[in-house]
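Response to reviewer comment R2.3. The reviewers asked that we include at least one raw input/output pair. We reproduce the pair for Threonylcarbamoyl-AMP synthase here without editing.
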Amino acid sequence: MNVPLRNTSFWRVDSQDPDREQLRAAAELLRAGGAVAFPTETVYGLGADARRTDAVARIFEAKGRPSDNPLIVHISDLAQLAELTLPLAAEGAGALADRLMDRFWPGPLTIVLPVKPGAVSARVTAGLDTVAVRMPAHPVALALIAESGCPLAAPSANRSGRPSPTLAAHVRGDLSGRIDGIVDGGAAGVGLESTVVEVVDGGTVRILRPGGVTAEDLQEAGATVVYDAVAAPEAAEDAAAGQAPRSPGMKYAHYAPQGQMQLVKGEPGAVADWINAAVRRARESGERTGVLAFAEHAARYDADCVLVVGSLARLDTAAHGLYTSLREFDAQGVQRIWAETCPEQGIGHALMNRLAKAAGHAVVRV
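Raw output as returned:
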C-alpha cells in the first residue's frame, strides 16, 4: 500500500506531568482528523477520532492493518462511555460491568459493550454491533484524550504484524513519515496489551484476549471467568479459523520478529539441549541464530544472540521486556529464533499468548 509521506511532529513530555501546551498541539491534530501516537500503561497506541471515518482510515493506512479487525476506543472519563454505548441486555450484566470499571479503570482492561448507533465510525467496530472500550492508566494518555475532546480509536502504534512498541523510538522506526505526530512519554509500563473481555451475565466474563489484567484478578473482583476458544490457555492454532474477530488481537498474526521463530516446551535441560542442537544445525547453514530465554536458564545457550526476556520468578518483568527483545533480534539481523516457554498462570497466560502469535504458533514439545 502506498502511504502519502507525512510530516511527523514529535513531542517529548514528562510521563507524570505532561506539558499541556505540547499536548494541545497534538490534540489539535487529532481534532483535525490526524493520527497521533501516544503512550499508555500497556504499549504505545496510534490514536484518531473514533467518530470520524476519515480519521480512522488513517490508522489502517499507516499500519497496513486488515479492515475487518476492530479497534479499541480509549476514553478519559465515564461521560464519554455514555456517549458511545448502550446498556447490556443480560440481567445483572450492567452491574458487573460497572464493578469491573470501578475496580480496573483506569487500567489495562477493555470491555466489549453494545455500541450506540452512529456513535463511532463503522470502521472502528468492523461492522459489529459492539465496541471495545477502555480507560488507560497513563497521565499522558488521559490528558491527551481530555485535551482533544475525542474518544480515540487506538490500536498499537506499529506496522501491522510487527512487535508492539513500548518506546517512542519503536514508533518512530515503524511509522515516522506515515502519521502526523508522536508523543514521547517514556517507556510503557505493563509491556503487553490490555485484557479484552465481554460480560456474559451478572456473574460471568469471557476473556477474548489475555493481557495486563489476569484471570485471577477478575476472579478476585467477583467474576466467574470463561475463555473464548482463541484466548484460552493452550489455545489451538486454528481456533479462530473462519470466525470474524469480535475483539482486537483475535484473528491475525501479530507481534512477529523478522526472523523465523519457534517455541520449545519441556523440562529446562531437555529444552536447552534441543535448542543448542538446532542452533548448531542453523549455523552450519550459515544462518544467524537467536535464543529468547529466562534469566534462570540463559547461560545454557550458545547462540549468536541470547536475550534475557525476564525472570520466571517475576513474569511481569518478562512481559515488560518481550517486545523490546523481539525488536532487538531484528536489529541484530537474527534469522532463526528459539524461545523458552513459561507456565500459563497469571500474566504468564498473556505472555504465552503473545509468544505463540509471534512464532506463528510453531511449537515443539521435547
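The longest strand covers residues 44-49. The radius of gyration is 20 Å. Further pairs are available on request from the corresponding author.
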